[in-house]
Design brief:
The complex is a heterodimer of chains A (199) and B (578).
Chain A lengths: L19 H30 L6 H4 L2 H26 L3 H31 L8 H28 L10 H31 L1
Helix pairs in contact in A: 1-5, 1-6, 3-4, 3-6, 4-5, 5-6
Chain B lengths: L12 H6 L4 H31 L24 H37 L7 H20 L25 H29 L12 H32 L11 E2 L2 E2 L8 H35 L6 H14 L15 H29 L8 H18 L2 H4 L1 H7 L3 H31 L1 E2 L2 H27 L22 H15 L1 H13 L1 E2 L55
Antiparallel strand pairs in B: 1-2, 3-4
Helix pairs in contact in B: 2-3, 2-4, 2-15, 3-4, 3-5, 3-6, 3-7, 3-13, 4-5, 5-6, 6-7, 6-8, 7-9, 7-10, 7-13, 8-9, 10-13, 10-14, 13-14, 14-15, 14-16
Classes of the chains: A mainly alpha (199), B mainly alpha (578).
């Protein structure tokens, strides 16, 4: 409404060296670390307390998950490229790279959907065992985070990108912030993959 | 009073009062909503106190309005009693005290005290309020769910809560909304305090209240997500049939449950208390902040040991994360773990005592003005002191074995929260009311509110300690009437209940005062009626959109009262050095 009244929305505050949204996203990610940290801790406690815990690869499909890991890591790379393109004043490349990021996110979700479906077909549900419960809860929550990231990035790809012509620096900052979130989502998966599929 | 920066923006009713992004309006929205919830939560407990004092007797006058499902013939059913208990705790903590302390006072005062035009993210601020509002509505609506509201205590321990009625699911959804609200608020507060401090407002020049809000925001930010995780897991247990908190071989009413099992009820307790112990500091730190402001102002002295107080509050915030399992000595988690948590619990009492002692020492030799805010702030000191000291035996495993889950625990934390935090919040209402409205609250009504409240509260909570020491358990539907060991202290139930209803009557002067003074209270003669030093008193009254009519700069510390050689006995922070 009146962005000019609140200082440091676009430019850094000299003594902290940060603009507002950047601290904001780091704080948000800190709370996300606590959220997933609590879930991982729960997993450890449940696994330590159980008499027989299945090895992930005996139930889950490792090759598919490996493919999905690649997709997500690639999307993190394209996300950085999108931000870098804005820094280099190349709006066309920005749209290309951000589009690729969104596409990778969608591929990840579709693959995940097939994976879920295969589990249901084998009558493996969250209620089947605590292992399956952990699997569905953690990947499901991660999936929700992916969907959130896709929505935000799709907005910046479409209507949100108009900001480039009025406040280019502000859009660049927004992409940096959204990128930090996207890398975090990627990082969560990099923990989830070995914990669930390999160990 | 007109606003030079934003006078061109004439905003609609909806933008100004309902979907406002101005931190002051959001603060007031939080304030009104949370005061209503506080009163509602108090009403729930007044109903419970009838059942405790006169078990099995029909509730007079209003009993027939609660329906056959809750009070057949006006007699309260145990199921309904449990709902009242669970919802009293939930509403008072998550919908009453925290939103009032953080959402209302934090939102209104923090940007003013640091010289900021607004919060860093005004839209998130609005979203935070509406998430809180929806969470509150969800909790209220849950009373009409089949089987009524959540009835497993405010702690929602599984397996009981996993098999409870639908109200528990709504409780969980409500909590997710409240957690979202506090997350948005916490991010906003921290960014605001770090980024939007005006020129010259260094960290060490920030008022103690701002420090308290900063530490509180960090606690909210980092302690709430584990409860969200726990909430997600319990939702999965209830809706998707998982067994995160359900052990193998569980038998309910003689029927073995058909679940996969392998879960751990203890896991919930760990996740819950990882939030809920830091939550205690969320309840108390803003209160300490308010009391510090009021005491410095009304003793006309700088706070004694301000730097030490700031160090203490930081240590308090850090330690609050590693004391949670002192709620769980009786779960059989082992003596080594108990020893660890006993040690940290004893450690955390040190910074609390430092802050309280500093406030006491500040009184020494001051020419104290005994006005309404000061009375509440002064009462906070011994009341919180009793609350804190009675907590020490609970922190030691050996004493806790006797006291765990007795009325002693209830007495202890109510001393911390009711005559402690809520008195501090009242002090804040009386202290900042002139800034918000331009009128003072009536002093005589304030005293009529204060003294009966103080007496009634002690008659409610002190007998609880006595009952607890005699071994009366909390959450007993009949108040202990069917237990032999409780017979000697049963008569106290009537005392406590009468005192609770007296406390309700003591709030009437406050409610009248609040509404009457908005229209007809004594007008303040200046923008700084209390002759205070901090920045919120340098704004016009009430502060316009954008807060400060001219850019404000800070030249000195927050509490320069009675500086030798100064013209007056207070030197505002924005008064330049000559």
């Amino acid at each position: 409404m009146m962005p000019d009244t609140i200082p440091y929305t676009t430019h850094e505050r000299p003594d902290t060296g940060l603009y507002n949204a950047k601290i904001g996203i780091w704080l948000f990610l800190a709370s996300e670390v606590m959220l997933f940290g609590a879930l991982f801790s729960s997993y450890v406690l449940l696994r330590v307390g159980s008499t027989n815990w299945p090895l992930g690869h005996t139930i889950l499909n490792v090759p598919i998950a490996t493919f999905n890991t690649m997709v997500l890591i690639s999307s993190s790379v394209t996300m950085v490229m999108a931000w870098a393109s804005l820094k280099l004043n190349n709006f066309k490349k920005y749209r290309l790279y951000l589009g690729l990021t969104v596409l990778c996110g969608l591929i990840f979700l579709v693959v995940k959907g097939f994976e879920y479906n295969a589990k249901f077909e084998h009558h493996l549900f969250p209620s089947t065992s605590t292992f399956m419960a952990v699997y569905f809860t953690l990947t499901g929550l991660h999936g929700l985070h992916v969907i959130g990231g896709i929505i935000v990035n799709a907005y910046f790809l479409g209507p949100g990108s108009k900001m480039w012509f009025k406040e280019p620096e502000r859009l660049t900052n927004r992409i940096e912030v959204s990128g930090l979130y996207w890398h975090f989502v990627d990082l969560v998966w990099i923990f989830l993959f070995p914990v669930l599929y390999l160990l | 009073m007109s606003d030079t920066n934003h006078s061109s923006h004439k905003q609609s009713f909806w933008r100004t009062y309902i979907f406002s992004t101005d931190h002051k309006m959001i603060g007031l929205q939080y304030g009104f909503t949370s005061l209503i919830f506080l009163f509602f939560g108090f009403c729930l407990v007044m109903l419970m106190r009838w059942q405790l004092a006169f078990p099995g007797q029909p509730v007079p006058f209003i009993g027939k309005f609660f329906g056959e499902a809750n009070m057949p013939g006006g007699v309260m059913l145990p199921e309904f009693y449990n709902q009242l208990g669970a919802m009293h705790g939930t509403i008072m903590v998550f919908l009453g005290v925290v939103p009032l302390a953080v959402g209302a006072f934090g939102n209104y005062i923090v940007p003013l005290q640091i010289g900021a035009p607004d919060m860093a993210f005004p839209k998130l601020n609005m979203a935070s309020y509406w998430a809180y509002f929806l969470g509150g509505v969800t909790m209220l609506v849950s009373f009409f769910a089949p089987g009524g509201a959540a009835n497993s205590g405010w702690t929602s321990y599984p397996p009981l809560s996993n098999i409870a009625t639908m109200g528990q699911t709504m409780w969980l959804f409500g909590m997710v909304l409240l957690i979202t609200s506090s997350l948005l608020g916490a991010v906003n507060f921290i960014v605001t305090i770090i980024q939007l401090r005006t020129k010259g407002m260094t960290f060490m020049r920030m008022p103690f209240f701002v420090w308290a809000q900063l530490v509180t925001a960090f606690i909210l930010l980092l302690a709430f997500p584990p409860l969200e995780a726990a909430g997600v897991l319990q939702l999965m247990d209830r809706l998707a049939g998982t067994s995160f908190f359900m052990p193998s071989g569980l038998v309910i009413s003689g029927q073995p449950l058909t679940i996969s099992g392998g879960g751990s009820p203890l896991l919930w307790q760990h996740l819950f208390w990882f939030l809920a112990h830091p939550e205690v500091y969320v309840l108390i730190l803003p209160a300490m902040g308010i009391v510090a402001e009021v005491i410095a102002n009304n003793t006309r002295k700088p706070l004694w040991g301000l730097r030490m107080m700031i160090a203490s509050i930081l240590i308090l915030g850090f330690l609050s994360f590693i004391v949670w399992a002192h709620h769980m000595y009786l779960t059989g988690m082992g003596t080594v773990i108990s020893a660890f948590f006993q040690t940290t619990t004893m450690m955390i009492s040190i910074p609390s005592v430092i802050i309280l002692s500093s406030l006491f020492i500040t009184l020494w030799g001051g020419s104290i003005r005994f006005n309404a805010p000061m009375l509440f702030a002064l009462a906070f000191l011994p009341m919180f002191g009793i609350g804190g000291l009675t907590g020490l035996p609970l922190g030691l495993a050996i004493a806790d074995i006797h006291l765990h889950d007795t009325y002693y625990v209830i007495g202890h934390f109510h001393y911390v929260v009711a005559p402690g935090t809520i008195f501090a919040l009242f002090a804040g209402v009386y202290y900042w009311f002139p800034k918000v409205t331009g009128r003072k609250l009536n002093e005589a009504l304030g005293r009529l509110h204060f003294w009966p409240s103080l007496i009634a509260m002690n008659f409610i909570f002190m007998p609880m300690m006595i009952q607890g020491l005699a071994g009366v358990s909390r959450r007993l539907y009949d108040g202990g009437a069917s237990y032999a060991h409780a017979q000697g202290v049963l008569h106290l139930n009537v005392v406590m209940s009468v005192a609770a209803w007296a406390l309700a009557i003591a709030q009437i002067p406050f409610i009248i005062n609040l509404f009457w003074s908005i229209k007809s209270g004594e007008r303040v003669k200046s923008d700084n009626p209390w002759e205070a030093t901090t920045l919120e008193w340098s704004t016009p009254t009430p502060p316009p959109h954008g807060n400060f009519s001219t850019p404000v700069e800070v030249y000195r510390g927050p509490y320069e009262y009675s500086v030798p050689g100064a013209q007056k006995d207070f030197t505002p922070q924005d008064q330049p050095k000559v």
